[in-house]
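Look over this record before class:
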Amino acid sequence: MSLSTQIAANLPYLRRYARALCGSQESGDNFVRATLEAALADDELKASLAGGRVPLYRAFTKLWSSIAGGAATSGSAGGREGAAQAMLAAVTPLNRQALLLTTLEEFSPSQAGEILGIPTAEVEQLVDEAVAEIDRESVTSVLIIEDEPLISMQLEGLVKSLGHDVFATAATRTQARDAVAEAMPGLVLADIQLADGSSGLDAVDDILAIANVPVIFITAYPERLLTGDRPEPTYLVTKPFQERSIRTTISQALFFRENTPAA
């Protein structure tokens, strides 16, 4: 298998990680693009990517750390540059990076340690710290858009176990629109394909036309929404999902909701 084919197979999932890490599709995709450009300009780095997912994520992490660290320690600035620096100063801390890698991306602690450049034992400690942070998070209300009753019930139970409230459940675009007619949730969990043939993407577009609410999409075909070619979800979980992946992604979405500087 050629290097380009190997990288192409892993790119959708690196985009998923980058978007969750940045809290933004645009920023995440830009970091991924910069990683690939750096690899093309460095023969040694390019050769290292032949090792699969771990080297690709490690290369991304080195670029991410250098840029985020520089922004966090740089001087004051105004306008867009100042807003960008403020955002990067509140970027996903190392414990959340470790949690995302071991849950959403399903790397082992040793693989996550290789990506982050730290010992396995430290990864495990960071994950424990991140989980403890989740337990202290503020409560929000969650709208669940899912047409499969068993999955909807599973998501309801998970949302409640995290201390959040279930705002409403909807199996169609119309039901979702009716649910937010008088009030808005603090978070949306949405399937892509709904019961009546309608789209969860369209249902979410209806909601986002009214208010800016963090959204997590759940789909069996994540690669279709991780191309980087058009406006796509920031947070994406693959079906069949692990509950810890939903837990981590909810936490990350709420982290950016609380920490993103006001415009």
User: Anything to note?
Assistant: The domain at 3-134 is CATH 1.20.140.160 (Butyryl-CoA Dehydrogenase, subunit A; domain 3). The chain is about 60% helix and 10% strand. The chain has two domains: 3-134, 138-259.
